[in-house]
């Protein structure tokens, strides 16, 4: 979930992530419709493991264990948390890792797909180290000016191909992009 100016902070609720004085929490609420809800439900029902940054993990750790009715898989799936400070959690299936090398090893392992939700600094790190195979963006038709951004610092030049796209009745562009090698350049005209 991303705005036109790249903000991904606090999409779900007013107090989800108010860090840095962010005051627009819950900004996705006006944009739901049948198509949006269907796509999100498809994503939630996929068999997956999760790679999360510590801050996103701590928000989720306080919420999802008691909301399994909406997303049963999040409690059952393994949650890998990149953190230099946390080492354990009472939330079942939580595994703490510390380095990019740990992520590379995890990426090479067999098992279900690994999804990242939120975690802006983690996504920036993954983009910087060419560890992103696919981006699923729900681009919302608004700008917020300030807030945590996904494409903020250090992305390597990389090409992506659109493999699926839909536009909701509320103007949200839902697009899946797969990694497509190096950036190609040329001359226009």
Features:
189 residues; alpha/beta; four-stranded mixed β-sheet; four-stranded parallel β-sheet; 5 helices
Please provide a written account of the structure:
It is built from 5 helices and 8 strands, in the order E-H-E-H-H-E-E-H-E-H-E-E-E. The N and C termini lie far apart (35 Å). The chain is globular, with a radius of gyration of 17 Å. The longest helix is centred in the first third of the chain and has 11 residues. 21% of the residues are buried. Strands 1-6-8-7 form a 4-stranded mixed sheet, covered by helices on one side. It has a 4-stranded parallel sheet with strand order 4-3-2-5. By secondary structure, it is of the alpha/beta class. The model has no long low-confidence stretch (mean pLDDT 94). Strand 7 and strand 8 form a beta hairpin.
Order of helices and strands: EHEHHEEHEHEEE
Strand order of the largest sheet: 1-6-8-7
Specify the number of helices: 5
How many strand units?
A: 8
C-alpha-based Rg, rounded = 17 Å
Shape: globular
Largest sheet: 4 strands, mixed
Low-confidence stretches: none
- Terminal CA distance reads 35 Å
């Amino acid at each position: 979930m991303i705005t036109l100016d790249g903000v991904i902070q606090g999409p779900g609720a007013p107090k989800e992530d108010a860090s840095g004085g962010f005051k627009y929490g819950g900004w996705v609420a006006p944009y739901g419709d049948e198509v949006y809800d269907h796509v999100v439900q498809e994503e939630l029902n996929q068999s997956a493991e999760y790679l999360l940054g510590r801050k996103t993990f701590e928000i989720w750790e306080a919420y999802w264990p008691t909301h399994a009715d909406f997303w049963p898989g999040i409690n059952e799936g393994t949650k890998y948390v990149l953190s230099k400070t946390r080492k354990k959690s009472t939330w079942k299936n939580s595994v703490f890792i510390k380095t990019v090398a740990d992520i590379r090893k995890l990426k090479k392992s067999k098992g279900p797909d690994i999804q990242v939700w939120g975690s802006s600094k983690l996504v920036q790190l993954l983009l910087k180290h060419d560890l992103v195979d696919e981006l699923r963006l729900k681009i919302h038709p608004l700008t917020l000016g300030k807030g945590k951004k996904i494409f903020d610092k250090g992305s390597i030049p990389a090409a992506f191909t659109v493999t699926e796209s839909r536009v909701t009745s509320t103007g949200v562009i839902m697009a899946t992009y797969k990694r497509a090698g190096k950036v190609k350049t040329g001359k226009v005209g």
